[in-house]
Design the sequence.
């Protein structure tokens, strides 16, 4: 059953309540390997479902356009203070609705339409909002994109430097959505300094690892840091922009009134709760366990003949290139899902296939580590993936795997399920 219980919803709208219960059960029974997902605590769930959703608060604490902010102001101040403490930054804006709006606010703060931005190409592991062509950021700005080295699958810093020198971007993004290796923030900072660009580190995927000391921090290297709050950081769906003092005002002005209206106060409260949890020393153990699990999963997959982009991982993420297995990422991910192992199909660098039918699957260990799985279970998880990928079209075998997966997961409590 969903936890906290949902008796009012069940009474008022049994149809939605049934779907919420079904989703809770689905999350309980599966090995959830989508690299951008997690399980939030019941405290975060409660804050998200609180009456703070009823309040409008355009502006910032002490400078609002609506009255009645006696409670919301301290909530937002708490979130800001905790973000600043956790990441060691001068300034935090906790209002962006999600990662894409946070990145758009950066464009509004530091670029004019038509200005040059540099980011990692989406198929190489970047994000749509780092200037990819189909995104507004690629349409309304002059975007130049860097990638990874073909031989290593790792960011090509020579290309980054050469491109920056030639194109003189005003903003450089580092970070992305499918990068299995450590981001070299000092190297990016050196390039940005040389060409006079603002360096923006998008740490959406690794924010929890940075907070927990399991990935180097961009603080002191990137003037601006964007992040979602719901991936490895294990908070509600939302985002933050962190910055040094010099760039703070431009960031705030871009988020409100530049891009957004009223902040989602229930989300802000839940972000504060999640940041409080991340400030607990136990969170560092979690962050390191996430990385250990990813490394163990990567090793077990390699042992079974899977090819991994960059050969392995330094963080929470494993990018599997299925080319040598003779199967596309989409049928593989669909078979895995039927087998109770949830992942997303993903392009791999230099992918000859189309984005909607790419060569890879992307795996992440943030959620299963929250459930309590350890390195001991990773060979089993890899074995299930191997069996599922080999059993595309064999529904009987996929259902047998799903039953085994559900049996294992029944032994691991899930926040949000009782
Ligand atoms: N949703 C993010 C991810 O899965 O990495 C990208 O926007």
Sequence:
């Amino acid at each position: 059953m969903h936890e906290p219980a949902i008796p009012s919803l069940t009474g008022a709208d049994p149809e939605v309540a049934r779907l919420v219960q079904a989703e809770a059960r689905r999350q309980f029974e599966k090995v959830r390997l989508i690299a951008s997902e997690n399980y939030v605590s019941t405290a975060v769930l409660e804050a998200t479902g609180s009456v703070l959703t009823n309040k409008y608060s355009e502006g910032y604490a002490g400078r609002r356009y609506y009255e009645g902010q006696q409670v919301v102001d301290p909530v937002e101040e708490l979130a800001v203070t905790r973000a600043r403490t956790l990441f060691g930054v001068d300034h935090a804006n906790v209002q962006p609705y999600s990662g894409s709006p946070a990145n758009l606010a950066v464009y509004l703060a530091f670029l004019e339409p038509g200005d040059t931005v540099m980011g990692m190409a989406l198929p190489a592991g970047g994000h749509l909002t780092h200037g990819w062509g189909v995104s507004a950021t690629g349409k309304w700005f002059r975007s130049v994109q860097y990638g990874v080295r073909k031989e290593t699958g790792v960011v090509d810093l020579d290309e980054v430097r050469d491109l920056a020198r030639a194109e003189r971007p005003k903003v450089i993004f580092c970070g992305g959505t499918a990068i299995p290796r450590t981001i070299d923030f000092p190297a990016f900072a050196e390039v940005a300094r040389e060409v006079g660009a603002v360096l923006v580190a998008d740490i959406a995927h690794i924010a929890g690892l940075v907070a927990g000391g399991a990935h180097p921090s961009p603080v002191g290297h990137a003037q601006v840091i964007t992040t979602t709050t719901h991936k490895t950081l294990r908070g509600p769906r939302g985002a933050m922009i962190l910055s040094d003092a010099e760039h703070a005002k431009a960031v705030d002005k871009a988020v409100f009134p530049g891009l957004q209206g009223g902040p989602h106060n229930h989300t802000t409260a839940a972000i504060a709760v999640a940041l409080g949890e991340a400030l607990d020393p136990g969170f560092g153990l979690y962050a390191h366990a996430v990385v250990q699990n990813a490394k163990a999963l990567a090793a077990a997959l390699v042992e079974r003949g899977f090819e991994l982009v960059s050969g392995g991982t330094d963080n929470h993420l494993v990018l599997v290139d299925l080319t040598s297995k003779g199967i596309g990422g989409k049928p593989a991910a669909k078979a895995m899902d039927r087998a109770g192992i949830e992942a997303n199909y993903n392009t791999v660098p230099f992918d000859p296939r189309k984005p909607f039918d790419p060569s890879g699957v992307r795996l992440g260990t943030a959620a299963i580590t929250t459930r309590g799985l350890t390195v001991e279970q990773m060979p089993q998880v890899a074995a299930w993936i191997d069996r599922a990928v080999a059993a595309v079209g064999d529904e009987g075998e996929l259902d047998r795997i799903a039953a085994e997966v559900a049996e294992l997961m029944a032994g691991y409590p899930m926040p949000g399920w009782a």
Q: What stands out?
A: The chain has two domains: 31-40+282-409, 47-278. The CA atoms of residues 1 and 418 lie 5 Å apart. The two ends are 5 Å apart (CA to CA). The pocket of D-serine is lined by residues 36, 99, 127, 177 (CB under 6 Å).
